Amino acid sequence: MTETQAPIVNPATLELEHWREGTFFESRDASFGALLGLRNLGVGYGEVPPGKSGCPFHNHHVEEELFVILSGEGEYRFGPDRHAVKAGDVLGAPAGGPETAHALINTGAVPLKYLSISANAATEICEYPDSGKFLAKTRDASGKPRFRFIGRPASDVDYWDGEPGI
C-alpha cells in the first residue's frame, strides 16, 4: 500500500478471478487483505454460482475463519451438520479437527456473495475429510511460499527415511 492510498477497498471494484474445477466447484473471487495493508489477516470476496461450492470441505489446524454472507442463500456445511444461511449471517470456522470442517454451498438461484476473513498464519495444516487429503504449507516473513505439500497419510515415510548414515 502506498502512503497516498486509503486503507479502503470496495469489493465491487475488485478484479475477480473466475475459476472452475469439475462440476461442483466454481467461484469468482479475489483476496484483498494486502490492498488494505494487512499482513496477518486474510480478507477475500467471493461469488459462488447456484449449485456450486467455492472450496472443498476442509478444516484448519491453525487459522480461524469468519464468513459474512452479503447476498444470496446457501448451506453452511460445518462438521456433521448443515445450516441454511442468508444475507446478513456471520459464520465462524474455528481451528480444530474434522468437527470444524466447513464449506459453503450455494443452494439459491442467484450468486452467493460473501466476505471471508481469516488469520493469515505463516504455517498451516488443513485436512479434507471427504477425500482424505491434507495440506501442509508455510511462507517466509515476506509472504512468499517456502513449502507446500498436498498428500494423504498413506504416503508417509519413517522419520529417519533418507537420512545420511541410515
Automatic annotation (TrEMBL):
Keyword annotations from UniProtKB, A to Z: Metal-binding
Residue span, Cupin type-2 domain: 47-117
MF-aspect GO terms: metal ion binding
Which InterPro entries has this protein been placed in?
Cupin_2, GPI/OXD, RmlC-like_jellyroll, RmlC_Cupin_sf
Superkingdom in the source lineage: Bacteria
Q: Mind telling me which SUPFAM superfamilies this protein's record contains?
A: RmlC-like cupins
Q: Name one Pfam family in it.
A: Cupin_2
Please give the name of this protein: Auxin-binding protein
